[in-house]
């Protein structure tokens, strides 16, 4: 468990329950903001399948900050740690979502009887690292903002 030797339950650093609450609320906010923002952009500028104008990225950043803030405020202590755990949760959920999408594409190709290689597109490691760093930064900022005077 996270805590100093001899620490009681109230002195532990990470409140996993509150971090889970912050992650779930942050993901729900991300769902609403990104889908709502994309719908508004499609109405205003027409439908595009390949670009989103940064709506999803900014929605994710705001959702991570909000999730980290909620987790830290509910925990009442060690806000930056709570927010960082929420950021790590966002990274894990994003990786699992991407894996599910790519596995679905490969499964669809194999089940159709095709014996051709499936093009999943290029792996942009710069985008992966910058997205992960933004998630960690956003979570820790959200946790830091939740500090009480």
Give a topology summary.
Layout: H1 16-45, H2 55-75, H3 79-111, H4 125-145
Describe the overall structure.
It is a single chain. With 149 residues, the protein is mainly alpha-helical. The chain has one domain. Helix content is 70%, strand content 0%. The protein is built from 4 helices and no strands. The longest helix has 33 residues. It is globular, with a radius of gyration of 19 Å. The mean pLDDT is 84.
Order of helices and strands: HHHH
Poorly predicted regions = none
Please indicate the count of domains: 1
C-alpha Rg (nearest Å): 19 Å
Give a short summary of the structure.
This protein is an all-alpha fold and 149 residues long. Helices cover 70% and strands 0% of the residues. The chain has one domain.
What labels would you give this structure?
149 residues; mainly alpha; globular
């Amino acid at each position: 468990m996270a805590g100093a030797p001899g620490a009681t339950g109230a002195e532990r650093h990470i409140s996993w329950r509150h971090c889970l609450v912050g992650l779930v609320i942050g993901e729900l906010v991300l769902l609403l903001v990104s889908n709502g923002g994309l719908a508004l952009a499609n109405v205003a500028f027409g439908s595009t399948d390949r670009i989103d104008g940064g709506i999803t990225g900014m929605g994710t950043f705001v959702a991570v900050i909000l999730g980290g803030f909620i987790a830290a405020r509910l925990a009442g202590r060690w806000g930056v740690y709570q927010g960082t755990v929420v950021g790590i949760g966002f990274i894990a959920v994003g990786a699992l979502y991407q894996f599910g999408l790519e596995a679905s594409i490969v499964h669809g190709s194999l089940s159709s009887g095709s014996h051709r290689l499936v093009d999943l597109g290029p792996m942009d490691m710069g985008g992966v690292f910058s997205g992960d760093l933004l998630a960690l930064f956003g979570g820790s900022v959200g946790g830091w903002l939740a500090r009480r005077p």
